[in-house]
Amino acid sequence: MSSSSNKLEEVTIATQPIFTGKVISLQVDTVQLPNGKTSTREIVKHPGAVAVLAIKDGRMLLVDQYRQAMGRTELEIPAGKLEAGEDPLDAAKRELEEETGYRPRSIRRLHSFYTSPGFADEIIHLYVTEDLEEGQYAPDEDEFLHNIEVTLDEAWDLIANGRISDAKTIMAVQAWQLYHLTGKFGYDNE
């Protein structure tokens, strides 16, 4: 397999920074293609993020938040970006408590996945917890959130009517459904 992958590899010749912001940066890479020709790739750089499937008394914790890029509110699982050098597990615990007021007594990683590998390097580390205790609700100063708790059936209804439409939350609902059917949250052995 590696010999086939090597035949597909692109070699970066040059990188031109375009924009550096609070959350992302944008660069344009000039690459040499496998056939020797060159092309450009617009790349969004992101520090990575975490998301938490938190289940309390058989209900999933969701955050309702206005999303400017979408022009509307979106129901999502608690999530947030990694700070520089931050361990994803620590970030998951921090984000869950900040956004919901619950602290996980135990938590584990389900999966890590790239959100849009065609143009971005953002990776999200998805965690799950069913063991929560009261913590300190403390959203960021520019975060305005409303918390709700939903059953699995309600989550599917919210997906069907478009109130949940982001990949990380849909993936979390599917993992929760799999847990209901098999006792496992995916490829884990518990």
TrEMBL record:
Gene3D superfamilies: Nucleoside Triphosphate Pyrophosphohydrolase (3.90.79.10). GO terms for molecular function: ADP-ribose diphosphatase activity. Keywords: Hydrolase. InterPro entries: NUDIX_hydrolase-like_dom_sf, NUDIX_hydrolase_CS, NUDIX_hydrolase_dom. Its cofactor is Mg(2+). Residues 44-172 form the Nudix hydrolase domain. Its EC number is 3.6.1.13. It holds the Pfam family NUDIX. SUPFAM superfamilies: Nudix. This is ADP-ribose pyrophosphatase. It comes from Paenibacillus sediminis. The lineage of its organism: Bacteria, Bacillati, Bacillota, Bacilli, Bacillales.
